[in-house]
Task: structure prediction
Amino acid sequence: MKKVIVATKNRGKVQDFKQLFQRKGYEVISLLEIPSSPDIDETGTTFVQNAILKAEGISDILQTMVIADDSGLSIDALGGKPGIFSARYAGDHKNDEDNLNKVLKELHGVKEEDRTARFHCALALAVPGRDTITVEGTCEGFITEEPIGDNGFGYDPIFFVREKNKTMAQLTKEEKNEISHRANALRKLEETMKNIRLGY
Result:
């Protein structure tokens, strides 16, 4: 069976990628399943740069196909923050609740119409000896004043999606896959993969 490594230890993200790649006949392996998996420094200044660094770095080391994402939340009232620092906004310990609470504190007193934000996802698919493929997806919304909902992870409980009239954390998995930034990026990747032969 063809194999693709998903360059993440986030179980939520792994499931998203499995839905696409298993349907195409790939065995999907995450970094959770690779002992002493390589750790790549994310030194890029954009989501795309960081996704490429992870995908190409791990692909070069393991000599197999690797998909990596870099995603995060950009809030207009905070000048685009937390952006590429979304996972560690409150510190290198990468705690979802601390990150979320820091955002809410910084937006204290900001009116709803000024709390616009978007989730952004960049995907990079690296194959040894081939040019790396990149796609991007976004999801528009605004930041609530308190967490709502128990599903999802990260900033989902404070990201309100107007078209669903719910936060990301209130959506079912099926609803989230209709509109999420990662789902949008994955749909673009699937279209791109239809037009190329990966040889893997």
In short: Strands lie at 2-6, 26-30, 65-75, 116-126, 133-143, 159-161, 166-167.
